[in-house]
Design goal:
single chain; 8 helices; 78% helix; transmembrane
Length: 189
């Protein structure tokens, strides 16, 4: 179930790699129906990931036992990922101007940090799949940007500060409260 969910969720998120195919679907059905179908498929994949991950946690398979300090390093990686995620939405920041696709980089950093710190099979499948997808997605998106001459507006110090504050606050809320409530694991006890 976890693998099927990953194939569906990450698969639909690969549609952007094929802009001509995507545009033919949009032209054939209209933009709003396309967005609705895309969202339903992504949601179905996400639900399968959650259910599959929950089931896999009931019978864990240990692949490796990382040292405890990698958990602390993962906290740093996750903080960086939240700042990168904020950079995808906060206008006028230099992170977005530099990276172009900070959300995809956030997924890479998040997945890599979790792979370092958790050695269970279901975690490796989940985070490994996201890491591979994010590496491929970033390369494809940057190549597309260069081919199309896409440039991003230069950021400002104000945009950087807002991005940093939003990212740190969101990380703190998630790390100290939401992660335990939603995932069932409290990174800080």
């Amino acid at each position: 179930m976890l693998i099927l969910g990953l194939l569906i969720f990450l698969g639909i998120h690969c549609v952007g790699f094929f802009p001509e195919w995507r545009q033919r679907r949009v032209d054939g059905m209209g933009l709003l129906p396309w967005k609705g179908l895309y969202s339903l498929i992504a949601l179905a994949g996400f639900v399968l990931i959650i259910l599959g991950f929950q089931r896999a946690r009931l019978d864990p398979v240990v692949l490796y036992a990382p040292p405890a300090w990698l958990g602390h390093l993962n906290s740093l990686f996750t903080l960086i990922a939240f700042i990168l995620l904020a950079a995808a939405y906060v206008p006028g920041n230099r992170i977005r101007a530099r990276l172009g696709h900070p959300m995809v980089v956030a997924a890479k950093v998040w997945a890599f940090g979790h792979l370092l710190s958790i050695g269970l099979l279901h975690d490796v499948v989940l985070f490994g799949a996201f890491l591979v997808w994010a590496i491929v997605a970033f390369a494809k998106l940057r190549r597309r940007d260069r081919a199309q001459g896409v440039t991003y507006a230069p950021g400002t110090l104000k945009g950087d500060v807002i991005t940093l504050v939003v990212g740190v606050v969101a990380w703190a809320l998630f790390a100290f409260w939401l992660h335990g409530a939603l995932i069932g694991v409290r990174p800080f006890g």
